[in-house]
Every structure is written in C-alpha cells, then in structure tokens.
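$ ./design --mode recover --in tokens.txt
reading tokens...
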C-alpha cells in the first residue's frame, strides 16, 4: 500500500547528502552565514548550547532566530521556532530553504521534534534544510568574515529536507484559508 495515500504526504523530494561547505551554492552559504551570525545572540544561561537558524522566504528574505532559554525550560524557544515566528509576525508563511547551526564536536544538530513539526506547518512542500557545525568564534571574528563566505566554514554540511527529517508529519486538520 502506498503510505502517501494514508498520510497525505509525499515522500521526500530531496535526497539526504553530505556536502563540503565550499561546494554549496552561494544562496545556501548565505543561509549558513546568517545562522552562524544570529547564533551569537543566543540566550543560553542554563545549557550554554547556542543554536542559530535562518529561513529563506518565498520572496527571498531571510529570517533569523536563535534559541532563548528560560529557567522553567518549557517556555524556552528554539532557534527554528524563533525565526519562523519572526517571519509569521511580519506576514510571511512560506519558505524555500533553511539552515540550522550548533556546535557539537562529532555530530550534526538537527531540529528537535517540536521544531520539525513547526517547520512542517509552514512547508507547502518538501523544503531543503542545511545543517552544519557552527563556527566557533566570537562576534568580532565573525564580523571580519562578513564579506568572505568561503572562509566561514570548511566542514561538512548535512543537506536534508523537512520530509526526510519528519516523514509522515502531523497534518490531520484541514487549514482554514483566510
């Protein structure tokens, strides 16, 4: 049986690959650079784990977000949800690509389950997500790299998509069009 008939979702349009940063398209590097820059603003007094996210809207505008923690933990906001909420608050609800960066020595930091579902809400199709290890730098060093995308990172980038990260995501309710 074709599961797409049961779930209402298509299979991932984009294959999951790992590419070198230097081989990525300039528009993808721009997203990763934005995510790295906004990550420096993260408010993380409890975990000290900074995350940055950047979402490109259908019109080409980039919306950034960083994680913001709270002593009660549950009211904390992940970088991905912060970026999307900023876009929605400005009337933008469609995205064509996203980047997420955080620093873990030996792993990619993909969006958490809640963020995956949040991204799915605004994905009108399978959108690419680029996940990379954050540049370990301070604001001054990042400013020096402002004009030089090639020197921002030489690491591998996980090139995936929302349908790869959240197959059969929750979509049971019909959206009411305003």
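writing sequence...
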């Amino acid at each position: 049986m074709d599961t797409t008939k049961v779930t209402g979702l298509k299979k991932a349009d984009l294959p999951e690959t790992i590419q070198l940063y230097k081989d990525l398209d300039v528009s993808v590097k721009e997203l990763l650079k934005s995510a790295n820059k906004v990550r420096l603003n993260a408010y993380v007094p409890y975990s000290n784990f900074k995350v940055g996210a950047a979402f490109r809207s259908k019109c080409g505008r980039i919306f950034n977000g960083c994680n913001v923690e709270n002593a009660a933990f549950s009211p904390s906001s992940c970088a991905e949800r912060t970026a999307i909420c900023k876009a929605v608050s400005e009337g933008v609800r469609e995205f064509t690509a996203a980047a997420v960066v955080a620093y873990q020595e030996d792993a990619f930091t993909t969006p958490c389950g809640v963020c995956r579902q949040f991204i799915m809400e605004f994905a009108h199709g399978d959108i690419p997500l680029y996940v990379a290890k954050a540049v370990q730098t301070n604001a001054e060093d990042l400013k020096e790299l402002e004009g030089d995308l090639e020197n921002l990172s030489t690491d591998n980038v996980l090139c995936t998509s929302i349908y790869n990260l959240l197959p059969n995501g929750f979509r049971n309710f019909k959206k009411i069009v305003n």
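exit 0
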